[in-house]
Design a protein that fits this description.
Length: about 325
């Protein structure tokens, strides 16, 4: 929402400090109670025809325009690959804790569908999985057998994001496949080498071996947050190439000053569709569990793949 719109609303209420009053003078539970009453009163004024019109005008609430059964088959195939590579599939809640994306990552809360009772509609399953992992670790419900052991979780989940859709085939809500590996730093980039190798093996099994995508390749890029990200990229690349000569990797070591989401290394997965190279996956290291658990030894690797986007690409009629 633009500052001009906010200013107009504040002027209309005659309370120029209304936002500060609501966010700073009230506790979270008090603000929640107030908003619940506001929505309760608003909804009580709706008629059934008005509700229908609201539905027709709301771009977030329409069903997906896909063949449900065929798409579910693809989704199940992806989850089976995840499970085969020991990334335990999770059925996540449709909502996550308020601030799940914007508190630990450079995401704008205005791009997320915030809700009541301390929640937001899930906008990124990797953030939700990271919170779950931090909770498992902090409460002692997951204890590694040795310092190098990793916790591997996965999901295929429908995401909702608020920015206007500008690309054909993209929709306000969509399904993404997610992988998350959590562990500890044991030195010499051992976590980094193992986790990236495993994520790329999963994506190769999904897109090349299972879904028969054409010309799968990976591009590595340096990011800040590590003392020597170029050496990190080279060590990870060399480790993977020593194990998998069939996984093509290119390096881009030019610094990207505007990208602070990933730390040390980011990768892109690209396939060819009707002669055009398409980005179909993205991943890298993030510091979210370091922030949650206040421990710089924590390590987290995340990946996201466009499950629904792949389905749409493969089923385009023109």
């Amino acid at each position: 929402m633009s500052p001009e719109v906010i200013e107009k609303i504040l002027k209309k209420t005659g309370q120029p400090d209304l936002i500060g009053l609501l966010t700073e003078s009230l506790s979270a539970s008090e603000l929640n109670s107030l908003l619940l009453e506001v929505f309760n009163r608003s909804v009580s004024r709706y008629s059934a025809p008005e509700l229908l019109r609201n539905y027709q005008l709301n771009r977030f609430v329409k069903p997906v325009d896909l063949d449900f059964m065929r798409f579910r088959e693809l989704e199940t195939a992806v989850l089976n690959v995840f499970a085969a590579f020991r990334f335990q599939p999770q059925e996540l809640s449709p909502v996550s804790a308020l601030g799940s994306c914007s508190v630990v990552a450079p995401a704008d809360q205005k791009k997320i569908l915030s809700a009541l009772r301390g929640t937001e509609v899930l906008a990124d399953a990797t953030n939700a999985l990271a919170l779950h992992i931090a909770d498992l670790k902090q409460t002692g419900r997951w204890k590694p057998g040795d310092p190098s052991e990793q916790l591997r979780l996965s999901a295929v989940h429908r995401h909702v994001r608020t920015p206007m859709v500008v690309h054909a085939g993209h929709t306000p809500h969509f399904k993404i496949g997610c992988l998350v590996s959590a562990g500890r730093d044991t030195g010499d980039f051992r976590f980094e080498m193992q986790s990236v190798a495993e994520h790329l093996s999963v994506l190769t099994a999904v897109f090349r071996d299972t879904l028969k995508a054409e010309n799968l390749r990976f591009k590595f890029m340096t990011r800040g947050g590590y003392d020597d990200p170029v050496r990190l990229l080279e060590r990870v690349r060399d480790h993977i190439c020593s194990q998998r000569s069939d996984v093509p990797i290119t390096l881009d070591t030019e610094p990207a000053t505007s990208n602070t989401y990933y730390k040390g290394l980011q990768y892109k997965a690209l396939i060819t569709v009707r002669g055009q190279e398409i980005e179909i996956g993205d991943g890298g290291f993030v510091d979210w569990t370091q922030q949650f658990l206040q421990n710089r030894k924590e390590r987290l690797m995340t990946s996201g793949i466009g499950v629904e986007w792949f389905y749409r690409l493969m089923n385009q009629t023109t």
